[in-house]
């Protein structure tokens, strides 16, 4: 793919001739056409680095002269209706784009640094986003269990994973699944910060902390709106956690996300927020851990042998049967060896043994052992299955999941 940004810069005889408006447009067009999820514009020592996040990994798009930074930031602030002269405080806003960029929506965030303002632009492209639960690439066993939890009338279902691991897409797909199943007979409401995509037939509300419209305030009011299903964008504090738990106990199906190191670690996180273990044991129906790994390019993938040091982490039974494959790099995958991404999930359901363990406040490691004994397949196990099937590489699983699985 030819970079419009580079073509535009080459057409300018000097930095003074660079039209900032067109430069920003070219950056956005290149990012959208490459399938990027984010654009990073960051002042470095002697240049402005412009990088795009492709399949979860940052790639340099183009370096720019340092004196262009204030102009670029100024243009982006105009697009997002931010305060142009404010350079010492973070700001955040949204901006629509234009037809050449696919009419995507941008979430523009500025952050002051000692070299100038850094800008990160999150790209929301409705054309490339599917909320079909069956089409997310979630493993069949996880999908069946997850749908089973969604069929329950009450309880709290939590999704956990790092930023960019697919939690938002999965939770929106879950709401879409509920609508497909029940149609207009079900009342669904959400409280989000911010609302990332507009969903049909769902009452979505966006928090506004500047006006004291926070998660707890919104949820207390929402409980009087007769919802059957409540989606909370993220559980960040004790008050939100308590309302979510109480809602799950009082006849509502509640879906939310929470940051924790692992699916069993969700219980320790919420106990540290002050939630009583007996409430957690009674309300939490299941926890879905998600990660996204890059898929081997189908055009250039070939058999390969991972480094012997890495192979020692693979159980002998898996190692002997595995078909280790790796993309060698070609024009179809921009010479990265990868094309698209795959889900790796960990579906923790709360049974009697785990409930008893939570009530006893057992440590996370012990909770994980009990869950595995009850049938939990960890992220590491699921990731190895992807590797053994030749869908991704062992190095990629270790990059995303790390050493937590073994």
The count of helical stretches stands at: 15
Q: What level of helicity do the residues show? A: 25-40%
Uncertain ranges: none
Overall outline: globular
Summing up helix and strand content along with how strands pair, one would put the structural category as alpha/beta
Describe it for me?
With 406 residues, this protein is an alpha/beta fold. The protein contains 15 helices and 15 strands. The strands form 3 sheets. Strands 9-8-10-11-7-12-15 form a 7-stranded mixed sheet, with helices on both faces. It has a 6-stranded antiparallel sheet with strand order 3-2-1-6-5-4, with helices on one face. The chain has a two-stranded antiparallel ribbon with strand order 13-14. A hairpin with a 2-residue loop joins strand 2 and strand 3. 37% of the residues are buried.
Give the gist of this structure:
By secondary structure, the chain is of the alpha/beta class. Helix content is 35%, strand content 25%.
Fold blueprint:
Layout: H1 4-11, H2 20-34, E1 38-43, E2 48-54, E3 57-64, H3 69-79, E4 91-96, E5 105-113, E6 116-124, H4 140-150, E7 155-160, H5 167-182, E8 188-192, E9 203-206, H6 215-222, E10 229-232, H7 238-249, E11 253-257, H8 265-272, H9 277-283, E12 284-296, E13 301-303, H10 308-311, H11 316-321, E14 325-327, E15 338-349, H12 352-359, H13 364-373, H14 379-388, H15 394-401
Key terms for this structure?
406 residues, alpha/beta, six-stranded antiparallel beta sheet
């Amino acid at each position: 793919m030819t970079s419009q940004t580079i073509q535009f810069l080459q057409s300018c005889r000097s930095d003074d001739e660079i039209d900032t408006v067109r430069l920003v447009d070219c950056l956005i067009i290149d990012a959208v056409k490459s399938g990027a999820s984010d654009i990073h514009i960051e002042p470095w020592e002697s240049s402005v680095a412009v990088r795009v996040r492709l399949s979860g990994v940052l790639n340099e798009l183009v370096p720019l002269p340092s004196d262009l930074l204030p102009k670029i930031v100024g243009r982006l602030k105009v697009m997002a209706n931010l305060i142009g002269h404010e350079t010492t405080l973070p700001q955040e806003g949204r901006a629509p784009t234009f037809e050449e960029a696919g009419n995507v929506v941008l979430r523009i965030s500025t952050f002051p640094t000692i070299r100038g303002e850094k800008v990160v632009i999150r790209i929301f492209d409705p054309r490339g986003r599917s909320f079909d639960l069956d089409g997310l690439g979630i493993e069949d066993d996880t999908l069946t269990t997850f749908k089973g939890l969604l069929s329950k009338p009450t309880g709290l279902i939590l999704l956990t994973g790092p930023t960019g691991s697919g939690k938002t897409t999965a939770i929106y797909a879950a709401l879409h699944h509920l609508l497909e199943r029940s149609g207009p007979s079900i009342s669904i409401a959400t409280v989000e910060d911010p609302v990332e995509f507009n969903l049909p037939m769902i009452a979505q509300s966006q928090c506004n902390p500047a006006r004291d419209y926070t998660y707890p305030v919104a949820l207390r009011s929402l409980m009087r709106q007769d919802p059957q299903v409540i989606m909370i964008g993220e559980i960040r504090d004790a008050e939100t956690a308590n309302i979510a738990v109480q809602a799950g106990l009082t006849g509502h199906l509640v879906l939310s996300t929470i940051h924790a190191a692992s699916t069993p670690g969700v219980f320790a996180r919420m106990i540290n927020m002050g939630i009583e273990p007996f409430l957690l044991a009674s309300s939490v129906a299941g926890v879905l851990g998600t990660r996204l790994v890059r898929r081997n390019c189908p055009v250039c993938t070939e058999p390969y042998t991972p480094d012997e040091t890495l192979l020692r982490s693979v159980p002998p039974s898996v190692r002997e049967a595995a078909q280790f494959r790796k993309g060698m790099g070609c024009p179809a995958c921009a010479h990265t060896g990868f094309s698209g991404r795959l889900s790796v999930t960990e579906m923790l359901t709360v049974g009697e043994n785990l409930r008893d363990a939570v009530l006893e406040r057992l440590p996370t490691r012990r909770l994980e052992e009990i869950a595995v004994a009850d049938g939990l397949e960890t992220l590491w196990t699921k990731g190895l299955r992807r590797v053994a099937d030749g869908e991704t590489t062992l190095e990629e699983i270790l990059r995303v999941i790390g050493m937590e699985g073994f």
